[in-house]
Write the structure tokens for this entry.
Amino acid sequence: MRHLVSGSKLGKQPAHRRAVLRNLVTNLVLHERISTTIRRAKATKPIAERMITLGKRDTLHARRQAAAFLQTPEATKKLFAQLAPRFADRNGGYTRIVHIGFRLGDGAELAVLEFIGSEMKVKAKKEKKARETQMDDMPKVPVPEKDIKP
């Protein structure tokens, strides 16, 4: 039985696991969308949601806790200035995991971990220029008129 057993060890030592999760959460806060394996996404999701909850408190203690976990000051600023106000009226469920297929190298199942409200924006397609043939690029050689027979 798996009573009181939670979280995934990700096949890493505790210090390495903590470093991987800190990197993932910091990048998620900065970019609002990351692509990783399913296991890592599921391990990162509760920590990312805890960071948003800290941002919603917006106290000095919460700022220090978030700054101690996130690795860059830019991530801490963005968490408190942009992300926390966006989720002010929401009680949890700030992130989503979308399965995107399998990695070619080892077949690991990949997923996108993203914040709700940061949906993918479709870019307008650029029109392709008409390709010029190689004949158009060649220099034109004048043909002498005396060789042409009527």
Observations:
- Residues 28 and 34 are 6 Å apart (CA to CA).
- The longest strand covers residues 95-102.
- The beta strands are 33-37, 95-102, 109-115.
- The mean pLDDT is 89.
